[in-house]
Amino acid sequence: MSSDKLLEDQNIIDIGSRLELFVDNFLISQLEGVSRNLHSPVPQEIILNFDSPWDGSLSAYSSIFQDGEKYKMYYRGRPMPQQLSSMTSEEMWAWIPDNWSGGSVTCYAESNDGVNWVKPNLGLFKSEVTGEKNNNIILVTDKNKWPNATDNFVAFLDKNPNVEPSAKYKGIGRHFVGGGYHTGNKAFKSSDGISWSLIQDELIHVDKGHTHDAQNIVFWDSFRNRYVEYHRKFREGIRETRTSTSTDFLNWSDQVHVEFGDAPKEHFNNLLVLPYDRAPHIFLGFGSRLNTDRDDFLNSPTDGIEDGVFLSSRDGVNFDRSFMEGWIRPGLDIHNWIHLGTSPSWGLLQTNKNELSLYWQNGYHQADHVCHLRRGTLRLDGFVSMNASYTGGTFITKKIKFTGKFLLINFSTSVVGTIRVELQDFEGNPIAGYTMDDCFDIYGDSTEYIVKWKDNFDLGFLSEQLIRLKIYIKDGDLYSIQFKE
């Protein structure tokens, strides 16, 4: 919690005017008849098929972000050799060392709305499959400079306010160092997101052992003014994640393991972390959870089956695993019940006023099936809600300080449901004029609603004072709160 402004009393939280989600128990002091509910994204359309000759069923590791009015995507393109589909697991792992390196390309797609995506014909590199430049490839293997980077190249828009225009876009891709292990990343830059070059020859994120062989990610943390990276590393036979930070992108802190408290250990093929744009002090984690104790339904040589899980963090190291259940399930399609068959992408887009879009991959590692990306949607801030049934319930926050005049809530009720808010002093006594009875019934559905108490809604006189919120919910959900001018 070092990133949050805590006063001497550890139960007092200064939230200022920032938006707060309920992804963890950070704000909550007491619960009665109310619980936190995880909301899964609603599956929508397939937005991209990996059906070009230069991508295919081994395509993976997509990174997606908004850049002005354009949405951009980068992904690994790799066709699947027919012989792989009939190999045993032992045969596949024997085949990989001599045949895998150099076969991947980095591809680019774009969209004006986050829904309809195209693979532009960039004409930059010849495809080894077609021998033509009519493709969307933006990076190929350089055997001397980056022999393996295209296996898992990830790009991001650098939001550092001091970024050089020539490095507005940055990227990382793995690099082998001795013993066949992936022990570091090559660092790339670009002024336009299309033409890429190395920042330096030296590696960054160097680690020992079996590391970096998944989707490694990096981004600018605007809340803490630093870069953050995450890469996979095995620990005691478990696929886990390590992280480090930097102020200049080239010199990094000592790496530490991401921790999950007392949660059971699980394999994460990828743990894709990003700050939530509307509340950048909170990191969201989209995990590709691999269950190696169960076989897939397709007799594949790969191990286990996979789904997507939801995590969150307030410091980037310690992650809350309140929700162990699957967040993105493989579903009815048998082709998704496979290793990397249901794997979230890195990225979260606001595709309209009230909607978030995220993406996941389905159908990996099958020569006779088209691997693709699917879009899913959530309401704005709609990851986790404070929920109560028809019988109703209340929860009380810890002591908080805020700045602003109005309390905004993101909520939804049924036609018989309601939400009410009471303001209390730091000792838990209702504040006159702002009691539960003074609060108008709140019902309906809104992502930004101003709470009113009879004729009162201006809370400026309480700004910077210690208060509590007592919130009553009946047959409804509360997704976020924010004090605002």
Summarize the structure in words:
There is one protein chain. By secondary structure, the protein is mostly beta strands. It folds into two domains: 12-39 and 384-484, Galactose-binding domain-like (Jelly Rolls), CATH 2.60.120; 42-379, Tachylectin-2, Chain A, CATH 2.115.10. Helices cover 2% and strands 45% of the residues. The chain contains one helix and 32 strands. The chain has one helix spanning 89-99, and strands at 12-16, 20-21, 28-32, 35-38, 42-49, 60-67, 70-77, 105-111, 117-118, 137-139, 154-157, 169-176, 182-190, 197-198, 217-221, 226-235, 238-246, 256-257, 267-276, 279-291, 305-313, 319-320, 342-344, 349-352, 355-362, 372-379, 384-388, 393-397, 399-402, 406-425, 445-450, 467-484. Strands 2, 3, 4, 27, 28, 30, 31 and 32 form an eight-stranded antiparallel β-sheet that branches. Strands 5, 23, 24, 25 and 26 form a five-stranded antiparallel β-sheet that branches. A hairpin with a 2-residue loop joins strand 19 (267-276) and strand 20. It is elongated. The relative contact order is 0.16. Mean pLDDT is 94; it is low at 1-8.
Task: Provide a short characterization of the protein structure.
The protein contains one helix and 32 strands. The N terminus is likely disordered.
Beta-strand content bin: 35-45%
Outline type:
elongated
In the CATH scheme, the class of the largest domain would be Mainly Beta
Tally of discrete structural domains: 2
Average pLDDT:
94
What composes the largest sheet? 8 strands, antiparallel
- Judged by helices, strands and strand pairing, the structural class is mainly beta
Strand runs, count = 32
How far apart the termini lie comes to: 26 Å
Low-confidence stretches: 1-8
Q: If you consult CATH, what is the topology of the largest domain?
A: Tachylectin-2, Chain A
Oligomer: single chain
CA radius of gyration is 24 Å
Name of the CATH architecture of the largest domain: 5 Propeller
Task: Please estimate the helix content.
Answer: under 10%
Please report the number of helical segments.
Answer: 1
Superfamily at the CATH H level of the largest domain? Glycosyl hydrolase domain, family 43
